[in-house]
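Hi all, a correction to my earlier message: I attached the wrong file for Tyrosine-protein kinase transforming protein RYK. Here's the right sequence:
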Amino acid sequence: MDSLMHRIDGEGVIKVADFGLTEDMYCTNYFRRRKSETGHEEKVPVRWMAPESIEDSVYTQATDVWSYGVTMWEIFTCGRVPYAGIHAMGLLKQLKRGERLEKPDNKACHDDIYDVMFSCWKLEAGGRPKFSDLVVTVNDLLERDAGYLELSRFPTLTVATTTPPPPSPADHPLAELAVSEPDMDNDLRV
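and the right structure:
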């Protein structure tokens, strides 16, 4: 799956790219064009953005948490397009009505993991977890459950036939998502 390879390096480390660098990889339906405060037209990745970012160009730790939840969802769906059935121009309306990404159909994405994702998508920014809370929660999940994504459910992916070593927390699908708390005390408004 070429769409997945640009996000994972040769050692399986997930890379989150600058959307400006991925223009050729995504169709225009992923983006919405809008004028920046400087009057220049810009593309914004609405499928990963919090409602307040789409509507008011507000970027805070809480909006980054929203995007983190979408990125987790992408990982557990092996690269599916977020909100695939919704046109980018109508996404804000759907989000305000309560539409959210469905739980990935993968045994590795148990309810506790989906609850973490879902908590990132609260409409009110103040209701979303802080990254420091996500670090604790994700690390607890890694220690409790060192499962694997069931790649055999995705026929376009090649799955190794050798028996892997016993799982450890570092091998858990969320291991690459375990982040240290960023220094984001100052909110940005673009």
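Sorry for the mix-up. Confidence is low (pLDDT under 50) at residues 1-6, 157-163.
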